[in-house]
Amino acid sequence: MSAGDRMQERTSIEELTSGVRPSQDRGDRGHRGDRGDRGQAAAPPGTGAAVIACDRLVRIYSTAGIEVQALQGLDLEVDAGELTALVGASGSGKSTLLNILAGLDTPTAGQARVAGHDLLAMSGGDRLAYRRSVVGFLWQQTGRNLFSHLTAAENVALPMRLARGRSQARGRARRSERALELLEMTGVGYCADRMPAQMSGGEQQRVAIGIALANRPAVLLADEPTGELDSESADEVFAALRTANAELGVTVLVVTHDPQVSAQVRRTIAIRDGKISTEVLRRAAADGQADVAEEYSVLDRAGRLQIPRDFIESLGMRDRVRLALEPDHVGVWPDSPGRGVKNTNEEGE
Length: 349
Ligand SMILES: Nc1ncnc2c1ncn2[C@@H]1O[C@H](COP(=O)(O)OP(=O)(O)O)[C@@H](O)[C@H]1O
Ligand SMILES: [Mg+2]
Prior knowledge:
Elements: H1 3-16, E1 50-63, E2 66-79, E3 83-87, H2 94-101, E4 109-114, E5 117-118, H3 124-133, E6 135-138, H4 142-145, H5 152-162, H6 172-185, H7 201-213, E7 219-223, H8 231-248, E8 251-255, H9 259-263, E9 267-272, E10 275-283, E11 292-297, H10 309-314, E12 321-325, E13 330-334
Helix pairs in contact: 5-6, 5-7, 6-7, 7-8
The protein binds adenosine-5'-diphosphate and magnesium ion.
């Protein structure tokens, strides 16, 4: 192995053990918004405590004098134990959000808390411990998740070894045993002694799930983990994520382009231009019936919502709309005369 290769390896070892290079704290961080306690009012009724809570999260990239607002005041709450899909067009801010939640990047403004950790207030040391034990991360590129010179079982045992001093970092025998349990759980126990080059992409991703779960994180983040796989392998990887969620109770947030995935999760959130725009909630229906999926627009804390583009276009809405409060809904009318403008009193009759 050349020195250059070793550098590569070193970079990935740090990444896979969540001990990535110190994130580039760009000093362009703005104010952090109010830091008061929150959560109770924001959680939808009937749900548990939020393990992921983002409040008006902003991330601005400034390169060569050009500013990109990748996240534009994003609000998001994910409850403990949820399995949630995150969808959105390329460039909408999905990876930016995941990198912040993973502790790999720092927001410009706003608040983000994961499992009680304030992502804007962590010291370098806190951040390292956070990346090792509070969150697990899965990259799209299989090669980024595994060490090519370690077997599957050694790959899974490694983060446990690196989390020294913690209760999970017990003796070698216990680590190997747990590594095998995790590989069995993700359906690749038979790969325990194989090197990455001897496994398919799907098998490598299922080993990577084991690596991400090694230190019993509260949250598993996956950025298009099936993006480079054929559909059969993608199904197997997604099944492994579901098993991890069901058996270990780990909260899973997975970025995906795959409409099949959204059909298999209870909640799919869509991000548009750096904000959550819509959510689809799926409820199990009565026996023998298809699940019921309902799409919602997301109301942010300031009362803003995004009207779907096709609604806006079909009614020719521009600049201004008229609103009317009805007993059980709000009516929205285009402002252009003669185009769908109604007397509000007639609506709903
Ligand atoms: N390191 C960076 N420097 C400058 N701009 C970036 C950087 N990373 C992402 N962006 C920009 O931020 C926006 C959101 O990117 P990203 O979060 O990667 O989107 P997605 O994952 O949804 O495709 C895009 O316009 C992208 O070009
Ligand atoms: Mg991305």
